[in-house]
C-alpha cells in the first residue's frame, strides 16, 4: 500500500514550535499549570519526544480539555464525564488486535506504552457539534501498531471496539447508543502517519474522561470518530458500521471528515467556536490537514461519502 | 402595604433568580469551558420553564380553587418573554455576533432555530397586549390573542427536541409536562361541553 510521507515536520515549523512555547499566553499557561498541580498524580509515562505537529496553534488549557467532553458512556452532558468517569478502571487493561492479520496479538497497556516510542502531537479537534480545541496528545502512530500484526491482503478496514461495562461506565445503562461504542476507518486512513493512538495528554497519562487508557485520535475527522477507551481493534474486509451511523444513518456517515462545505442535516458546519475564543472562526477543510490527507479521498464525492 | 409584605414583590425577585445565578457564575468563572453555550442554554431552559409555569396557573387555580394565583399570571408570562428575548439576544450577539446572513440562513436551514424563532414571534403579540389598557380595549379578542401561548409552547418544545444530538430525555420531560398542562384544559373543556 502506498503511504505518501506527509510534509508534517519542516525545520521552519520546529522553530515556530519553540517560539510558540515561549509566547504562549501567560494566563492560559499559568492556569494549565495550576490545574496540573492540583490533579492527583498518575503514574509517569515513559519519556517522550516533542515534535512540530501543531503549526503554531495555542493549546487549550488542561481544565478546558478535561472538563468539556463528549463521552456518552458517562452521560450526555459535556460536564458529565469529568464528574462520573472516576468509576472507570484503566488498569489492568488489555488491547487485542485481531481479524485479518498474520500475527494477532494482545498487549497489556503498560507494555504497549513502553513498546512504542511516545511523541507529543498538538492537534486540532473539531467536534461535529461546532466547537473545537487544540490538544497536546501523547501517543504513537496507529500504523506502528498495525504493522506489528501484519495485516492480511483482505484487510480493507479497521474496526475499533471500546469497553462495554455498565459497572464502570454508568451511561451504558441507558440505550442511548448501541453499546459498546464502535468506530471504523479505511485501512489507508488507519495507516496514515497523522492517525494516533493516544495514551496521554499534556505529558501525563490520559485522564479517564478523555478516554483512558488508550484512545484513537484522527485529527481530520469529527471528534466522535476518535473512539475512547479501546479494548479491541479488528482488521476486517467490509466497512464497519459505527455506533453513530447505526443510531442516525442520515446524519452520520462512515467518513465524517471535517468539511465546511457539507452541512450536518440540522446545522451548518461552516464555522466553529474554538473553546476559549469569543468569535467563531471558519472551519477548515479536513480540519486544516488537507495537505496531508486530501489525497486519500481523491476522486470521491465528499457530499455522498459524508 | 409595605413592600416586603407584598407577595408580588417577592415573586418578582424570585423571577430574577436565573439572571442573578448567571451573573454570579460569570463572576466566579463557573460558566465552564464554553460560557456562550452555557448562557444561551440556560436562558432557553428558563424561557421554557417560565412558559410552563405560566401555563400551570390556570390548572392550579382550578385544582386548588384559589383564584388569587391569577394575579401573578401576567408577571410570570412577561418574565418568560423577557427570558426569551435574552435567549434570542444571546444567540444573535454572543453566538452569532450579529452575522445577519448567517443568522437568516440558520433560521431557514436549521429546523430547531426555525421552531425557536416561530415560538418567539408568537409570543410577541402576547407581550404587547399584556398592559391592562390593551386588555380592556381588546375585550373578548384578548383571550383570542393569548391563545397563542399554546402553539408557542409546542413550538418551543419542538425547538428543544430538535436540537439535541441523540438523548431526548430532557426535551421529553418538558414535552410530558406540557402535554399534562394542555391535557387538563382539553379535559375540562370536554367536561363543560358535555355538561352544558
Ligand atoms: C419561546 C422561545 C424559545 C424557547 C422556549 C427556547 C428554549 C430553548 C431551550 C429549552 C433550549 C435548550 C437548552 C438546553 O439544552 O439545556 C434552547 C436552546 C437553543 N435555542 Fe432556544 N428557545 C426559544 C427561542 C429561540 C430563538 C428565537 C432562537 C434563535 C433564533 C433560539 C436559539 C437557540 C439556540 C441556538 C440554542 C442552542 C444553544 C446551544 O446548543 O449552543 N431559541 N432554547
Protein architecture, described:
- The complex is a heterodimer of chains A (306) and B (196).
- Chain A has helices at residues 11-23, 26-38, 62-67, 80-84, 109-115, 142-149, 187-191, 243-247, 290-293; strands at residues 48-50, 94-99, 105-108, 118-126, 131-141, 157-162, 182-186, 196-201, 204-205, 215-217, 230-236, 271-274, 281-282.
- Chain A is α+β, with helices and mostly antiparallel strands and 306 residues long.
- Chain A has one domain (57-297): Sulfite Oxidase, Chain A, domain 2 (Alpha-Beta Complex), CATH 3.90.420.
- In chain A, the strands form 2 sheets. In chain A, strands 1, 4, 5, 8, 9, 10, 12 and 13 form an 8-stranded mixed β-sheet that branches. In chain A, strands 3-2-11-6-7 form a 5-stranded mixed β-sheet.
- The model of chain A is unreliable at 1-27 and 37-41 (pLDDT under 50).
- By secondary structure, chain B is an all-alpha fold.
- Chain B has one domain.
- Helix content of chain B is 81%, strand content 0%.
- Chain B has 10 helices and no strands.
- Chain B has helices spanning 7-15, 17-28, 35-64, 73-95, 100-109, 111-128, 132-138, 140-146, 149-163, 169-195.
- In chain B, helix 3 packs parallel to helix 10 (169-195).
- The longest helix of chain B has 30 residues, at 35-64.
- The N and C termini of chain B lie far apart (42 Å).
- Classes of the chains: A alpha+beta (306), B mainly alpha (196).
- The A-B interface holds A 60, 63-64, 67-68, 72, 76, 78-79, 129, 131, 174, 176-177, 247-248, 263, 266-268, 270-271, 273, 275-276, 278-280 and B 32-34, 36-37, 94, 96-97, 102, 105-106, 109-112, 162-167, 169.
- The structure holds protoporphyrin IX containing FE.
- Protoporphyrin IX containing FE (HEM) binds next to helix 3, helix 4, helix 6 and helix 9 of chain B.
Amino acid at each position: 500500500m502506498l503511504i505518501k510521507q506527509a510534509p508534517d515536520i519542516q525545520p521552519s515549523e520546529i522553530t515556530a514550535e519553540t517560539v510558540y512555547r515561549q509566547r504562549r499566553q501567560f494566563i492560559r499557561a499559568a492556569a494549565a499549570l495550576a490545574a496540573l498541580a492540583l490533579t492527583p498524580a498518575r503514574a509517569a509515562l515513559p519519556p517522550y519526544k516533542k515534535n512540530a505537529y501543531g503549526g503554531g496553534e495555542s493549546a487549550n488549557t488542561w481544565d478546558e480539555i478535561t472538563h468539556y467532553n463528549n463521552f456518552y458512556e458517562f452521560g450526555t452532558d459535556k460536564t458529565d464525564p469529568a464528574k462520573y468517569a472516576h468509576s472507570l478502571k484503566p488498569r489492568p487493561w488489555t488491547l487485542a488486535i485481531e481479524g485479518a492479520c498474520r500475527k494477532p496479538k494482545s498487549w497489556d497497556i503498560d507494555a504497549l506504552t513502553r513498546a512504542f516510542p511516545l511523541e507529543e502531537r498538538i492537534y486540532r479537534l473539531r467536534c461535529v457539534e461546532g466547537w473545537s480545541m487544540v490538544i497536546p496528545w501523547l501517543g504513537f502512530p496507529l500504523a506502528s501498531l498495525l504493522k506489528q500484526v501484519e495485516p492480511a491482503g483482505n484487510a480493507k478496514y479497521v474496526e475499533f471496539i471500546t469497553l462495554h461495562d455498565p459497572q464502570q461506565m454508568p451511561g451504558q445503562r441507558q440505550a442511548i447508543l448501541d453499546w459498546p461504542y464502535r468506530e471504523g476507518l479505511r485501512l489507508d486512513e488507519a495507516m496514515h502517519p497523522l492517525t494516533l493512538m493516544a495514551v496521554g495528554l499534556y505529558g501525563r497519562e490520559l485522564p479517564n474522561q478523555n478516554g483512558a487508557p488508550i484512545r484513537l485520535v484522527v485529527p481530520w475527522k469529527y471528534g466522535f470518530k476518535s473512539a475512547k477507551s479501546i479494548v479491541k481493534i479488528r482488521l476486517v474486509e467490509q466497512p464497519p458500521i459505527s455506533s453513530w451511523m447505526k443510531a442516525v444513518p442520515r446524519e452520520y456517515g462512515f467518513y465524517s471528515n471535517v468539511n465546511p462545505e457539507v452541512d450536518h442535516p440540522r446545522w451548518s458546519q461552516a464555522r466553529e467556536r474554538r473553546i476559549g475564543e469569543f468569535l467563531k472562526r471558519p472551519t477548515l477543510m479536513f480540519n486544516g490537514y488537507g495537505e496531508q490527507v486530501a489525497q486519500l479521498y481523491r476522486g470521491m464525492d465528499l457530499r455522498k461519502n459524508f | 402595604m409595605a413592600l416586603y409584605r407584598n407577595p408580588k414583590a417577592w415573586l418578582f425577585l424570585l423571577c430574577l433568580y436565573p439572571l442573578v445565578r448567571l451573573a454570579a457564575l460569570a463572576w466566579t468563572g463557573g460558566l465552564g469551558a464554553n460560557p456562550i453555550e452555557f448562557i444561551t442554554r440556560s436562558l432557553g431552559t428558563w424561557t421554557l420553564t417560565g412558559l410552563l409555569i405560566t401555563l400551570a396557573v390556570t390548572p392550579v387555580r382550578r385544582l386548588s380553587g384559589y383564584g388569587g394565583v391569577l394575579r401573578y399570571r401576567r408577571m410570570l408570562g412577561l418574565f418568560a418573554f423577557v427570558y426569551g428575548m435574552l435567549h434570542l439576544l444571546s444567540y444573535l450577539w454572543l453566538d452569532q455576533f450579529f452575522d445577519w446572513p448567517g443568522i437568516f440562513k440558520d433560521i431557514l436551514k436549521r429546523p430547531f432555530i426555525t421552531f425557536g424563532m416561530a415560538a418567539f414571534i408568537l409570543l410577541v403579540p402576547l407581550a404587547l397586549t399584556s398592559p391592562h389598557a390593551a386588555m380592556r380595549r381588546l375585550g373578548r379578542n384578548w383571550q383570542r390573542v393569548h391563545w397563542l401561548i399554546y402553539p408557542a409552547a409546542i413550538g418551543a418544545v419542538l425547538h428543544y427536541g430538535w436540537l439535541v444530538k441523540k438523548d431526548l430525555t430532557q426535551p421529553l420531560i418538558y414535552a410530558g409536562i406540557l402535554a399534562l398542562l394542555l391535557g387538563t384544559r382539553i379535559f375540562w373543556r370536554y367536561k363543560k361541553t358535555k355538561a352544558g
